[in-house]
Amino acid sequence: MVYAIFIWHGVFLALTMAMIDFNTVFPAMITDLGGSKIIFGIIYSLMLGIPYLFSLLFGHFLSTYRYRRKFLIMGIYLRGLAFLGMAAFMLFFGARSPWLVVGSFFIWILLFSLSGGLAGIAYEDIFGKLVAKGERGKLAAARQFASSLAAFGGGWIIARVFSVNSLPFPKNYAFILFIGFIGLIVASIAFWFIKEPPSPVSGEARPSLASLLRSIPNILRENPEFFRFILVENLSSFSLMIMPFYMIYAKDMFSVSDVYIGRYLLFQIGGTIASNLLWGWMSGRYDSRRVVRFCLLLGGVIPIVAIAITHLGADMFSIVFLLVGFVFSGRRVGFEPYLLDIIPADNRPVYLGIRGTLNVLVVLLPVLGGVIIHFAGYLPVFALVAAVMFLASLLLNGRQAGYS
Question: Model pTM?
């Protein structure tokens, strides 16, 4: 039953997120609305960074509640509202006032990110409570495989929407955003069937947020594996930062039409499906840390491949998105189970909050990447990403200690 609940949610969430895929659909949408690379970088920073900036606050808030399911469901519904708002603005203003739509996205993405941050911490805590340590990697791989199949269906929808003349801009984007709204509502149904065990809540007065902030250095000193995870995850943000710029790079280098949005997305999803066999085997044979390390190495290889095959044309550039799919899938199978293995179960929301708040680079890098690309071009950013990802993989050494 537990497997079915998480896989159900994963399937419909994947279908939803394909409608606003951060690496293909979303950058193409902002570009078609006339947004610059810098504007896109700012919006992308909001999308990625806001959940992390507020995660300590959310973790501190959730730590006082024995049951966190209601916050998970509330967060999903608010995310659905953000999809609906983006769809409405795109439909009614996309053609005649594109900058109004871009401006509204700052509000909708803020809501999308804040609600996702609250829902994400509640989700990880519930996942940790319901799934035993040795089973987390296996379930993550099974969920990712099923999600990849659903995402492939979403990619097929994207490809169809952008290849038919009956849905010109902006109706095409409005339509897929509305599908995303429906997908989130359906995805939330599974969590109504969860039998959530109570979380331990101390009878003592909880520490204030300020005192919790002051305690972070001690927590990091006492948990070196946790500190190393935060450091590595910050460095891995370089790989996340560059992923959506591959689509903009393709538009700049090859002048590809929107038909390539669906084509590249299908290759990306194909990579997630094909790689699940690798990640599932690696997680079962070794551990989640090995999956993370391999993802880091692959994240450093992709920008090198992108530069090397540019002269082969837009069709061969699909290989880049295939490899992005490998990394995207591996991050989901590796990072979250690895984190849950190394933090104490009785204080999980707080540790998840600390992890998010200290993941500062994910907030800054998309803006920085957009600025550097705008003024210096793609090559310096691609080279920097490759170097940092190889460095991050070297830091992930040593024996793993952990909690159940």
Answer: 0.78
